[in-house]
Amino acid sequence: MPNIPLVNVKVQFAQIQTEAEKQVLEILRAGAYILGQHNRAFETELAEYVGAKYTVPVKSGTDALLVALRAAGIQAGDEVITTPFTFIATAEAVRYLGATPVFVDIEPESYCIDVSQIEKKITPKTKAILPVHLFGHSVDVEAIETIAQEHNLLVIGDACQSIGTEYKGRPIGGLFTAECYSFYPTKNLGGCGEGGAVTTNDPEIADKVRILRAHGMRETYKHETIGYNMRLDEIQCCILRLKLQKLAAWTKRRQEIAKIYDAAFQDVAGLKTPPVKNYSNHIYHQYVLLADKREAVQKYLQANGVGTAVHYPLPLNLQAAFADLHLPAGSFPVAESVAKKIFSIPVYPELTDAEIAYVIEKVREGAQL
Ligand SMILES: *Cc1c(COP(=O)(O)O)cnc(C)c1O
User: Fold this and answer.
1) Interval 322-341 mean pLDDT
2) Given pLDDT bands bounded at 50, 70 and 90, which one contains residue 90?
3) Which ligand 1 atom lies nearest to the CA of residue 187?
4) How far is the CA of 176 from the centre of ligand 1 (A)?
5) Domain ranges of the chain
6) Is the shortest distance between the CB of 287 and ligand 1 below 6 Å?
7) Is 247-367 a CATH 3.90.1150.10 domain?
8) N or C, fewer C-beta in 10 Å, the chain?
9) pTM of the prediction?
10) 132 lines ligand 1 (CB under 6 A)
11) What are the tens digits of pLDDT across the range 278-309?
C-alpha cells in the first residue's frame, strides 16, 4: 500500500540537499551566524518575489504578526478586526499587545473574511484590519482597502500561507500596510526550523520592524524602545534562499495538481472542491475539500495510506483561549459550518502522477461510502 503523507518535507529538502549541505558547512566554518550576507541577500530576493520594497526577516510568522502590528501602532485597548477561521497565531499576535481581536465571519466563496460584514464591527476603538489570505487564496484587497481608508484604519495582512499569492495579477506582498509571512517547515517556502518575515512598501514600517526585531536598537547598545530578539539566523536564510529559487516551479506544480483534483472531484456528490474568486490566483498551501461525511472519508483515506488533516476543526471564537470574548457557537455560522466539513489532502509538488491518481481514487471511493 502506498504511503502518501499530507506533507513531505524530506523529499523537498532532497532537491536542495547538495548545495544546502555545502553552504551550511561554509556558514558553520565562517562563523558569521546572525545578520550576515545570507540575511541581506534573502531580504532583496524575497522582496522581489512578494512584490514589496522592503523585507525584514524575523524568527517566525507569529513574530512577524506581532512586530508588524506593533510597528503599525497597535496597543492595549485597541480593537483589530480579523477572521475566526485561521490558525490561532493571527489572533494571538493581537492579544500579545493587549489589544482585542474582533472576529468577522468568512464567506463561503473563499473561506476568507466576509468584507461585507466588516463595517458593522468597526467601533471608535478599531485601529486595524488583519485579514488572512487563507490556504493560498488572496483576500479582496481593494474592497478591504476602501473600508480601511474610509475609517482611517491600517491593514496588516496575514500571508503566512500565501507566498506567491496574487491579487488581480499583482503579488500581495506590498499591497497592504504590511504583510506577514511564515517559513515554518511545512509552509510552501519552509526553512529547516522556524522563520518568518514582514514585507512592506512603507519605509517607516520597515524601519520600525527592523529596530523592534533587535532590542529596539539602531546603533549598537543604543535602545530607542523595548524591542525583541527576533533575528533570523544565517543558516535559515541560506536554506530559504536555495528553496526560493525553486518556489515558482513548485507553486506551478501545486496549481497543476489542484486542477487535476478539481476535475476529478467536481461530479462527486457530497464533496465540494476549493473555491477560487476571479481576483485571486491560488497557490494551494492546502487543497481543502468539504465533505458531508468528513470523518468517514478521512478514516478511509488513513486506512489506505493517504494523509489528511483538518484546517481548522474549531473556529477561534470556540477556543478556550478566547472564552473571555463570549462568542458562543452560532456567532459565526459560515466559519462554524465549514469547520465541520473541511479537510486537506496531499498537494505537495513532489507528488508523482501515480500518487495523484491513487489519492483521487481513494477520495472518490471514500466519499461514496
Ligand atoms: C503558520 C501560520 C502562522 C504562524 O506562523 P509561524 O511561523 O508558525 O509562527 C500564522 N498565521 C497563519 C495563517 C499560519 O498558517
Assistant:
1) 98
2) very high
3) 1
4) 18
5) 9-241, 247-367
6) no
7) yes
8) N
9) 0.98
10) yes
11) 999 999 999 999 999 999 999 999 999 999 99
